[in-house]
Structure formats: structure tokens, C-alpha cells
Design a protein that fits this description.
Helix content: over 70%
Strand content: under 5%
Structural class: mainly alpha
Order of helices and strands: HHH
Distance between the termini: 36 Å
Number of strands: 0
Radius of gyration: 13 Å
Largest sheet: none
Length: about 35
């Protein structure tokens, strides 16, 4: 159960961190997607 939750949270965090990067850290957007 914990493993499934951890995987879900990890996938959610990864997908979530990719989207607002350019919104929260515009200057970091170039570094992240470079």
C-alpha cells in the first residue's frame, strides 16, 4: 500500500513540477528544459 502511494505521489510530483516551473521560476525554465 505504501509503495503504491509513494509511486503515485512521485508521479504526481514529477508531472506537477514540470508545469509550473516556467510560472514560478521563469529564469529556471531555460535551465530545466535545456
Amino acid at each position: 500500500m505504501n509503495v503504491e502511494i509513494t509511486i503515485f505521489q512521485e508521479e504526481f510530483t514529477n508531472s506537477f513540477s514540470l508545469m509550473p516551473t516556467s510560472i514560478i521560476y521563469p529564469e529556471v525554465d531555460d535551465l530545466s528544459f535545456e
